[in-house]
Amino acid sequence: MSKKHISISAEFFPPKTEEGARQILRTANVLKNFPLDFVSITYGAGGSSRERTVEYGELLREIFGFEVVPHLTCVGHSKAELLGILKRLADSGFRRIMALRGDAPKNAPDFAPSPDALKHASELISLIKELYPDMEISCAGYPEKHPEAASFKSDIEYLKLKTDLGAGSVLTQLFFNNSAFFDFQKECKSAGIGASIHAGVMPALTLKQARNFCSMCGSALPEELERRLEAAGSEEAQARVGLDWAKGQISELISRGVDGIHLYILNRPKSAIELMGFIFENL
Ligand SMILES: Cc1cc2nc3c(=O)[nH]c(=O)nc-3n(C[C@H](O)[C@H](O)[C@H](O)COP(=O)(O)OP(=O)(O)OC[C@H]3O[C@@H](n4cnc5c(N)ncnc54)[C@H](O)[C@@H]3O)c2cc1C
User: Fold this and answer.
1) Are 105 and 76 in contact (CB under 8 A)?
2) Centre of ligand 1 from the C-alpha of residue 65, in Å
3) Domains of the chain by range and CATH?
4) Radius of gyration (C-alpha) of the chain in whole angstroms
5) Model confidence over 177-205: pLDDT tens digits?
6) CA–CA distance from 104 to each of 22, 197, 231 (Å)?
7) Measured from the CB, is residue 121 less than 6 Å from ligand 1?
8) Strand 7-12 versus strand 68-73 pairing type
9) CA 67, 261, 198 angle in degrees (round to 5)?
10) Dist CA 233 CA 236 (whole Å)
11) Residue 98: per-residue pLDDT
């Protein structure tokens, strides 16, 4: 029997500074040596990084040869703006989009969505499929429930709606506890979700960073990981703990035949190369 193909991908974010620009290019340069299925590049929900997402997406494709999946959020845009961005993405040759709702910007109390703004990622998926039926679509899934969701069950039902409307793959929120992911996978299957489910893995490079991410996205920081990070001391030692934890997660995900691993690499070349090296040695 042939071995199952596990999709391996990495997520970049568009840089805001010159040093940031050097970092993303350095990271892309080390990752180009791995046979990644795709890389994705995030989008500022307020629309602030709109052009940079497209520009860096094009650079990642043209210079490094990656299959690039740009993210697109609908929360900060009018329908006319979304139509323009979708046309720009399609004309540029992107064949797959990560379709998201996004969040209202936190530091903009006066933020008011456009009266005709789409309310949910599902509406964005419908719009993309209506205009560009051949465009592949990925959407977000939450092993530990989206923070606003009324219940885990309703969150899974809305995820099913996104896949029924045309999302062929689900990229998950980061999680540090694999059992949350395996339970989520089971629930998705019971709900009849046939899309592939790609596990979002992020190394906890410092305790501060891990706490920040967890409080932002509602993922749990396991006590044991927190304790090890606290005991580690220097930032270098904390990164070692976080990378080893991520490797433990990855080994188990691979051995249990996950559909894909989507690595949140934070545009950091050193940890990205170590984790990608580990993944490809263990596939
Ligand atoms: C892999 C990944 C990548 C991401 N990339 C980005 C990025 O590039 N830029 C960015 O700003 N953010 C990004 N995010 C964060 C994301 O925008 C937020 O988590 C946001 O709060 C929800 O987006 P969504 O697409 O999951 O929304 P939705 O699918 O719309 O879900 C949002 C909430 O509404 C509920 N819901 C869904 N559909 C309906 C419906 N039809 N009616 C009623 N309730 C509904 C859901 O249960 C959930 O609680 C990413 C998240 C993930 C997991």
Assistant:
1) yes
2) 29
3) 7-282 (3.20.20.220)
4) 18
5) 999 999 999 999 999 999 999 999 999 99
6) 29, 26, 36
7) yes
8) unpaired
9) 90
10) 8
11) 98
